[in-house]
Amino acid sequence: MTLTGTIDVDCTLGEGPVWDDRLHRLWWTDIQESRLYFWDWQDRKASWVAVPERLGSLGLTSDSEWLICAFASGFALFHPGRGETRWLARPERTYRGIRFNDGRVDRSGNFWSGTMVEDSGLAGGAEGALYRLSPAGDMQSLVDRIGISNGLAWSADGKTQWFADSSCRTIWRFNHEAGSARLTDRQNFAELPEGRAPDGSEVDAAGCLWNAEWGGSQVVRYRDDGTVDCKFDLPVSQPTCLAFGGPDLDHIFVTTAHEGLDPARREAEPLAGKVLILRTGHVGLLSPKFPIENEGKPQ
């Protein structure tokens, strides 16, 4: 793999990249600045729009003008062109030190996102959870007792699901009944050492899991059995998430953060906060879409 370029932005906490194959566009969020970013392959220019709350993660929908989003308080459809928000479910409407974080659309078109404990004093012992929103608008909580939800990904057939809790530095693997909310046979897939935490994940066409390691200055490719296939060192200490993209899905876009870095560390990491573009011999999968009606409403 080779670092071929960067997208010149300055994200406090860049996260959640998603490649839209229809528009040849990369979407991502700067959570702490409440910004939704986009970058087009053809003109190589980055732009952003303000969003109504901090945006933890996002996914594509069947209508390219709308995105499915996990804002700090819950799920909504968002129209970047009009700045329009249509709330679907808000389990954290009242802030109690917990917000939504990582999320993705599964292979059957459901949107999953988990919450994280951001302020333990306000949370008062409450913990995060993993939620699933169906295209019909039904929401379920499926995994509880989570510190920081991250690392959602699915195999190409949707029968294997990965999910991570960054607070305990663990990636889990589940059997997933594709199209359903049923998760079984939870297993420890990977455990990281102190000082490194699993952040966002993605799966390639060969069925291997890629993970960005917060604090680890690297992305790691895992084989199906959890053993490490390869690692790629990065010039930043806080990579946050990744997405395959480009016309042939053979590039990897890695979002990064400079949140919490002191001035000396920021000077030593001039690329922190930018999106890194890697050229790889591996190929990704198309991003699934959350089905909606033409009016931007759930079916």
Order of H and E elements: EEEEEEEEEEEHEEEEEEEEEEEEHEE
**Arithmetic mean of pLDDT:** 96
Query: Care to count the β-strands?
Result: 25
Helix content: under 10%
Count of individual domains: 1
CA-atom Rg in angstroms: 17 Å
- Top-tier CATH class: Mainly Beta
Shape summary = globular
Spans of at least 5 consecutive residues with low confidence = none
What does this structure look like?
A hairpin with a 3-residue loop joins strand 7 (67-71) and strand 8 (75-79). The longest helix has 6 residues, at 263-268. The protein has one domain: Neuraminidase. It has helices at residues 120-123, 263-268, and strands at 2-7, 14-20, 25-30, 35-40, 46-50, 55-61, 67-71, 75-79, 84-89, 98-105, 111-117, 128-133, 139-146, 149-154, 160-165, 170-176, 183-191, 197-203, 209-214, 218-222, 228-233, 239-245, 251-256, 275-279, 289-290. The strands form six sheets. Strands 9-8-7-6-25 form a five-stranded mixed beta sheet, with no helix packed on it. The protein is mostly beta strands and 299 residues long. It is built from two helices and 25 strands.
Looking at this protein, list some descriptive labels.
299 residues, mainly beta, Neuraminidase, five-stranded mixed sheet, four-stranded antiparallel sheet, 2 helices
Topology:
Elements (H helix, E strand, L loop, with lengths): L1 E6 L6 E7 L4 E6 L4 E6 L5 E5 L4 E7 L5 E5 L3 E5 L4 E6 L8 E8 L5 E7 L2 H4 L4 E6 L5 E8 L2 E6 L5 E6 L4 E7 L6 E9 L5 E7 L5 E6 L3 E5 L5 E6 L5 E7 L5 E6 L6 H6 L6 E5 L9 E2 L9
